[in-house]
Design goal:
Elements: E1 9-13, E2 19-20, E3 38-42, E4 76-79, H1 82-87, E5 91-100, E6 105-106, H2 113-123, E7 131-135, H3 139-151, E8 155-160, E9 168-169, E10 177-182, H4 188-198, E11 204-206, H5 213-219, H6 221-230, E12 236-240, H7 245-260, E13 269-275, H8 280-286, H9 297-306, H10 325-332, E14 335-339, H11 341-355, H12 361-375, E15 384-392, H13 394-400, E16 404-405, E17 410-412, H14 418-428
Parallel strand pairs: 5-15, 7-8, 7-11, 8-10, 10-17, 12-13, 12-15, 13-14
Antiparallel strand pairs: 1-2, 1-3, 4-5, 5-6, 9-16
């Protein structure tokens, strides 16, 4: 695979429309007076695919990257025969992120978080001396660990101890990747807090989450895959959300595709879902509140412990920020839906029976809400529907491979101090 040229783009503040150069790892507009996402504005207005041999970087025209990393795979979109027929939908398209050789899906971490990791790490300069920090509920950590391990990029991961079962890999990781955890009983918010303490040291820099244009435009490749396969922009977009970053990215990709001019001018209705009883964004949306509603920390942790889809457990999502999920839902006349563990499990079982692929719990939640939306008469049988299966094929991959687990290098109590954390983590990378 040839290297790609650095993509030409500028950044634009959503709140003010101010456009400016990306002078480095910019996550926000320093001149903005209110919290706001920034977007990449690409020089190329029409997307030209580079080819399958480029993996994810086939979409590099609309990725803010300066280099190509080895090992990437693009999302795969296909017209559903089994589930589509079962639901009476004539134009159901599944975008599969994961491992399914039969469908040509080759993400070996089995999660769409690979799209984010290859884009974010491709944005980072090859001569960056600081250590990248990523907080995760599981799948994001696995994806970044794999990408950084295989491309020799120093990385620190922060994950809740209760989610360490997600830290499985095809082979042992390069020693450039270190893993810390907050003790059992902590959740994703606690892992973020732990990573924030590490970032007090100048030796580390934040990946940035939803604020990083590379993360959003990486995951937006799911929509680019769907639209370039279908030949038009769908009417509906279904996905389960923890932070909502994928849905925000879908909206942004939709706007670029309209500007492209070859795929129609409709706006996809975002149909995003949460796993009950952990539904803070659903509660805020139902109250038509841009601000998240109060959520007692202990109750939040208890609710997170209940849900199957642990990756959907973000207590501080980019919901109300300018350009965030609230704005995306308003702009697309979208909805937030809810499914229970039992509904998700049932949907996952049905998906495997009808499409031949096992799916992650979050994808089961998205599928469950699609099923209910059809049953409730919300979706016309001829509508073009994109179902974003954000994780798939893990059971199949593990059956074919002897996986290894990464144990945490350090585990911190929830009441650890900044000094304790910084000193211990700096020492990890001094070894």
């Amino acid at each position: 695979m040839k290297n790609i040229k650095a993509t030409a783009y500028t950044l634009k503040c959503v709140a003010t429309n101010r456009e400016f150069e990306d002078t480095g790892w910019l996550l926000e507009d320093s001149q903005a007076e209110e919290p706001s996402l920034v977007r990449a504005v690409y020089e190329k207005k029409q997307l030209e695919l580079k080819g399958e041999e480029y993996g994810l970087y086939t979409f590099s025209d609309w990725l803010p990257v300066s280099r190509t990393l080895k090992g990437s795979a693009a999302p795969v979109t296909f017209r559903s025969e089994g589930l589509g027929k079962h639901l009476g939908l004539n134009n159901l398209y599944i975008t599969l992120n994961g491992y399914s050789p039969r469908h040509g899906a080759a993400m070996t971490t089995c999660s769409f978080k690979e799209t984010e990791a290859f884009s974010v790490c491709g944005r980072a300069k090859a001569d960056e001396e600081r250590i990248l920090v990523v907080a995760s509920a599981g799948n994001t950590a696995r994806a970044f660990a794999r990408v950084c391990s295989e491309n020799n990029i120093p990385l620190l991961l922060s994950v809740p101890a209760d989610n360490l079962s997600a830290m499985w890999f095809e082979k042992p990781l390069n020693k450039c990747v270190k893993l810390i955890a907050c003790e059992k009983g902590g959740d994703y918010f606690d892992a973020i807090h732990l990573s924030d303490m590490v970032l007090k040291s100048p030796r580390f820099y934040a990946e940035g989450g939803a604020k990083n244009v590379a993360r959003r435009d990486g995951v937006a490749t799911t929509v680019l895959s769907a639209v370039t396969t279908i030949g038009r922009i769908p009417n509906y977009y279904f996905q389960a959300v923890g932070s909502g970053t994928g849905a925000i990215a879908a909206w942004e990709a939709n706007m670029r595709l309209i500007e492209d001019g070859r795929y129609g001018d409709n706006t996809m209705k975002l149909m995003v879902s949460q796993n009950a009883p952990f539904v803070p964004m659903y509660d805020a949306w139902r109250a038509d509140s841009r601000a998240m509603l109060p959520y007692d920390a202990d109750k939040a942790r208890r609710d997170v412990a209940i849900i199957d889809a642990k990756v959907l457990s973000n207590r501080k999502p980019p919901y109300g920020i300018k350009g965030g999920l609230y704005d995306a839902l308003k702009a697309t006349d979208g909805e937030i839906l809810v499914a229970t563990n039992m509904q998700g499990r049932k949907a996952s079982k049905l998906f495997k029976e009808l499409e031949g692929v096992d799916i992650h719990p979050a994808a089961g939640i998205a599928t469950a809400t699609l099923i209910k939306a059809v049953q409730d008469g919300k979706i016309d049988k001829d509508a073009y529907v994109m179902l974003n299966i954000t994780g798939a094929g893990e059971e199949a991959f593990k059956a074919e491979h002897d996986v290894v687990y990464k144990e945490p290098d350090l585990v911190f109590p929830l009441n650890a101090t900044v000094e304790q954390v910084v000193e211990a983590v700096e020492a990890l990378f001094a070894e």
